[in-house]
Specification:
The protein has 404 residues and is α/β, with parallel strands linked by helices. The relative contact order is 0.14. Helix content is 36%, strand content 14%. The protein has a domain at 50-310: Rossmann fold (3-Layer(aba) Sandwich).
């Protein structure tokens, strides 16, 4: 009987020790799986877990058809590469597809041959017509929305979100016009991005703008982890690419046309870098000098994939198992995730400013064991348990042998 008891204990401790190493091995396999298509998290790899896009056409009237085609072309591209409509905010100041002068009602084309209709049944415009204002654009970015605004019109991003912000319209030195009756300045955009950073609403931002003197619009940015590009230098115009005689106006701008042309070669699993995209635009073809600002961006462009901003991610965040105490925490004590929906600005600030410790109470001092575990680290603790098990098994085996 004594031998059977010792053998049973031996098997239990062996399985426990093996389980410790097995968990480590399984976790490493999972990490390797999600990092095999890109660099590990760090200087070269992306740490984001979700993608968003904010696409803005700020121009009205039929003769600005090309600006609407610009935005719809970007909309089609990010959807094709995996960003769902729920993660896209599309702002169109005018609807060319329903204009009475459109010879092809319900359609918007970006090339004279009309091979591809950018409009259709699967287009979801979130802000249309007179809803496209500077105020609404800034509210979308910063999350300062009225409680009545539906989720479909909100940018529900968080600190793990990569956001692609695209703007097109008529502009000048450090300003972009909205519907010919108001303007947004480079300072406004810079301050909006800074509010996003302070409120942890993004991981990285890729800002692209196609307008006259576009590069001046990102000159005032000062928040970290922002990559920016524009279609033209100070004093330069941004030109259209082609006219359609049947439609009667220019159908797309040159800078956006060549960006979209390059993006047609990209799919969801492409390893093509942002450096290749930004270097692909030929100055002689667009008749202006596109610019890139990288000093705020922490990663190398040749190590940053296009799909980090234009596509949906297939990454997960691996976290340690919850303790029993955490599992017993009531649901009402856990604030709703920022990625599941945001309320108005007051509720967001409430979550940020209030701690989990009730007012008037003194936080409990962690136990000696908890301090020791924190000092050792999770991996070291697992190894210690395994070696203790092996030592105990050896002792018991020696003791059992001495009895016989």
């Amino acid at each position: 009987m004594l031998f059977l008891s010792v053998l049973h204990l031996f098997l239990c401790l062996s399985s426990w020790a093996w389980g410790v190493y097995s968990l480590d091995t399984q976790e490493q396999i999972v990490r390797n799986f999600f990092e095999k298509n890109g660099s590990p998290v760090g200087e070269t790899g992306s740490t984001h877990t979700n993608n968003w896009a904010v696409l803005v056409c700020s121009s009205r009237y039929w003769f600005n058809y090309r600006h609407m085609a610009n935005a719809l072309g970007m909309y089609r591209t990010v959807k094709r590469l995996g960003i769902p409509d729920s993660n896209i905010i599309l702002m169109l100041a005018d609807d060319a597809s329903c204009n009475s002068r459109n010879k092809f009602p319900g359609s918007v084309y970006a090339n004279p041959g009309r091979h591809l209709d950018l409009s259709g049944d699967n287009i979801e415009v979130d802000y249309r017509g007179y809803e496209v204002t500077v105020e609404n654009f800034i509210r979308v970015l910063t999350g300062r929305m009225d409680p009545s605004v539906p989720r479909s019109k909100r940018l529900l991003s968080d600190e793990r979100s990569n956001i692609f912000v695209y703007m097109t319209g008529h502009g000048g030195n450090e300003f972009l016009k909205f519907q010919d009756n108001e303007e947004i300045s480079a300072f406004d955009i810079a301050d909006a991005f800074e509010q996003m950073y302070q409120k942890k609403r993004y991981n990285e931002i890729f800002f692209m703008i196609d307008t006259c003197q576009a590069n001046t619009m990102y000159s005032k940015l000062y928040s970290p982890n922002i990559l920016a590009t524009g279609s033209s230098n100070l004093g330069e115009n941004s030109y259209s690419h082609a006219n359609d005689n049947d439609i009667g106006v220019a159908v797309i701008d040159a800078f956006t046309h060549y960006v979209l042309e390059f993006m047609e070669k990209i799919n969801k699993t492409s390893q093509v870098s942002m450096q290749e995209l930004l270097s692909s635009v030929d100055v002689t073809k667009i008749n202006s000098h596109p610019g890139v600002r990288t000093d705020l961006f922490r990663r190398s462009l040749d190590k940053t994939r296009i799909t980090d901003f234009f596509g949906g991610v297939a990454q997960v965040e691996i976290v340690p198992p919850l303790d029993v105490a955490d599992m017993n925490t009531p649901d009402e004590a856990i604030p709703e995730s920022t990625n599941k929906g945001k309320g108005d600005n007051e509720s967001q600030e409430h979550l940020q400013l209030h701690s989990d410790v009730p007012s008037g109470s003194t936080p409990q001092e962690p136990s000696t064991l908890a301090k020791a575990l924190n000092w050792m680290g999770e991996k070291e603790w697992k190894n210690a348990r395994a070696w203790a098990s092996v030592t105990l098994i050896g002792f018991l085996a020696s003791w059992a042998a001495s009895k016989h």
